[in-house]
Amino acid sequence: MSKIQEIAEAIEGGKSKVIGGLVEEALAEGIDPLKILNEGMIATMGVVGEKFKKAEIFVPEMLVAARAMKKGVEVLKPKLGGNATGALGKCIIGTVSGDLHDIGKNLVAMMIESTGFEVIDLGVDVPADKFIEALKANPDTKIVAVSGLLTTTMPSMKDIVGALKSSGIKGFKVICGGAPITQEFANQIGADGYSPDAASAAVLAKQLAA
Ligand code: B1M
Questions:
Q1: First-to-final CA distance of the chain
Q2: What CATH number does domain 88-209 carry, 3.40.720.10, 3.40.50.280, 1.10.10.10, 3.40.50.880?
Q3: Which of 110, 155, 182, 200 is deepest in the core (most CB within 10 A)?
Q4: Alpha-carbon distance 154 to 152, whole Å?
Q5: What is the CA radius of gyration of the chain?
Q6: CA of 163 to the centre of ligand 1 (A)
Q7: What is the tens place of the pLDDT at every residue in 37-93?
């Protein structure tokens, strides 16, 4: 079995104690950190999601898989990080209210930080007024990044973007993303940008902040 397969199986099985060691072994074998992330980890969460959808597994199994993935990402983070200087300005990020998913949001935060932004992470289940509060406390913010994973909380994203845009605060751009979000939805709710994954979110943030 390849190391990537071992990592995938450990994540799917929620093996938080062994995942760190496996990721270290994969790195020592010279496997590209992005390959480990994309093929060993992110793809596996897709498999976990499909099994949940078919009722082959339930919330506790999704939760332990998520925990294992987070442990793996911790080991991978120094290898993925680049220019974490904060020189490009501030980026406020959070997952929309009603939504507790944070793995994708954390990856986006990590990539945006490594591109050169100072990231202010508001966490999960963040309502519009918390985004506004953070923006008022950091009026020099260049990017507000909003993540959402549930179709049921897409209206929260619309509310947040609407509130940000009508706040009267100028000089920042709003980007959004997450599994159910599309460019079309982003346009509809008045966001300045959309990206499908963490790496392209960082590129977009840099372009919009320039
Ligand atoms: Co939940 N969950 N979950 N879940 N979960 C999904 C999202 C689901 C698709 C599973 C499924 O049914 N196939 C489904 C949503 C269906 C829908 O809305 N149509 C679902 C459901 C239904 C639920 C609950 C309602 C289940 C229940 O309780 N009955 C519940 C909701 C709780 C809540 O939020 N209120 C729930 C709970 C959970 C756990 C807590 C157990 C756990 C989350 C743990 C955590 O995050 N700390 C969990 C998990 C792990 C998943 C799946 C399996 C994996 C999510 C993940 O981390 N993926 C997920 C299935 C799936 O995604 N296929 C599922 C890996 C991650 C890297 O990808 O987050 O998509 P993702 O991020 C990507 C891109 O989307 C993008 O970049 C990242 C990759 O580069 N991106 C952005 C994300 N944010 C961005 C922002 C940007 C730009 C790009 O700009 C700002």
A1: 45
A2: 3.40.50.280
A3: 110
A4: 6
A5: 17
A6: 24
A7: 999 999 999 999 999 999 999 999 999 999 999 999 999 988 887 667 888 999 999
**Contact residues of ligand 1, CB 6 A cut-off:** 42, 45-46, 48-49, 52-53, 59, 62-63, 66, 98-105, 107-108, 145-147, 149-152, 175-180, 195, 197-198, 201
CATH assignment, 3-84? 1.10.1240.10
The rounded Å distance from CA 90 to ligand 1 centre is: 26
pLDDT digit string, tens, across residues 174-186: 999 999 999 999 9
pLDDT (tens digit, 9 = 90+) per residue, 123-144?
999 999 999 999 999 999 999 9
> What are the sequence ranges of the domains in the chain?
3-84, 88-209
- Cβ-Cβ contacts under 8 Å for 41 (sequence gap 6 or more): 7, 8, 11, 69, 72, 73
Residue positions annotated with a catalytic role: 99, 101, 156
